[in-house]
Design brief:
- The structure is a single chain.
- With 298 residues, the protein is mostly helical.
- It has a domain of 190 residues.
- The longest helix is centred in the last third of the chain and has 55 residues.
- The chain is rod-shaped and about 110 Å long.
- The two termini are 39 Å apart.
């Protein structure tokens, strides 16, 4: 009998890696960059040069007073940037966390060793071919190893001795269910890739509305540049955040969809080998060959 494969150590390593990455992201939100401050740092340098004469519009000489040069540098932590993006940054942050969780889950679940453990499948087919396992033993072995490929093979083994059409149909039906199961969480990743650009676009519209509303209520002494810059900054931040989440989500969805297709093709090839071994035609073939050899020997 074949022992059940142990994948707990790999699952533990991936879970630990995911927790460390999530902890690093949370820390990056709260800790400021090295050497940066949230408040504006202002440096003022005064020039000590002599007054420079300039020509006034009326033709008279005038002197230009000594000027001070003000250099302002502002830097914000990542949390400050997210706060500047407005309330729509909250659902975008939630979408990014959801994407991270499901990407790690699919990376673990769609590995070949988690879907098609080759040592187990190879030895199972060899033992069935050499008639070391009967129908009940083979089905029990598949039930003890809850892998997707074992679920498909188990449905085929239940048709042991039937025609190849019946066995193949049972494998195809089970393979369809397994394929849907493998694609289950891909819908979440696809949803994140679809929703986040729309949230970014909504944030852009709200930012522009905020800017124009502020301009309409502006007093004569107010500066419209600050209000316009604030609204446009909010609009661009939400757009950038939406695209930042959507692009990796789309790439992850395409990659995992191709992984699912490859796994389904491999399961189908393994199922075809099983059909040739346990169908009525496959079981009768060795007997026919043995009869031919006996006739030749006689």
């Amino acid at each position: 009998m074949i022992a059940k494969l142990n994948t707990g150590s790999y699952l533990g390593r991936c879970t630990t890696l995911g927790l460390l990455l999530m902890g690093w992201l949370i820390t990056a939100l709260w800790i400021e960059p090295v050497g940066a401050q949230e408040d504006v740092a202002t440096t003022t340098t005064e020039s000590i040069s002599e007054p420079r004469p300039v020509l006034a519009p009326g033709g008279e000489d005038a002197t230009l007073a000594t000027e001070g040069t003000v250099v302002a540098t502002a830097s914000k932590s990542l949390l400050g940037v997210l706060q500047s993006g407005g309330p729509l940054m909250i659902p975008l942050a939630v979408c990014s966390v959801v994407l991270l969780v499901f990407v790690f889950e699919r990376l673990i679940s769609l590995r070949r060793s988690r879907v098609i453990p080759l040592p187990l499948v190879t030895r199972l087919l060899e033992q069935v071919r050499e008639r070391q396992l009967d129908r009940e033993q083979a089905i029990a072995l598949c039930e003890e190893n809850p892998y997707p490929v074992c679920e498909v093979l188990g449905e085929g083994l239940r048709k042991w001795g039937r025609s190849s059409v019946e066995v193949e149909q049972a494998i195809l039906d089970s393979g369809e269910r397994v394929s849907n199961e493998l694609k289950r969480n891909l819908r979440v990743i696809n949803g994140v890739a679809t929703v986040t650009p729309l949230l970014g676009l909504l944030g852009t519209v709200l930012g522009m509305i905020h800017a124009f509303d502020a301009i309409s209520t502006l007093t004569p002494d107010g500066d419209p540049k600050i209000l316009i810059a604030t609204g446009i900054s909010q609009a661009l931040l939400t757009t950038a955040a939406g695209l930042t989440v959507a692009i990796p989500a789309l790439i992850a969805h395409m990659y995992f969809a191709s992984c699912v297709d490859r796994r389904v093709v491999e399961i189908d090839a393994i199922g075809l080998q099983l059909v040739r071994l346990i169908s009525a035609e496959g079981l009768a073939e060795p007997q026919a060959k043995a009869g031919k050899r006996a006739k030749k020997a006689a």
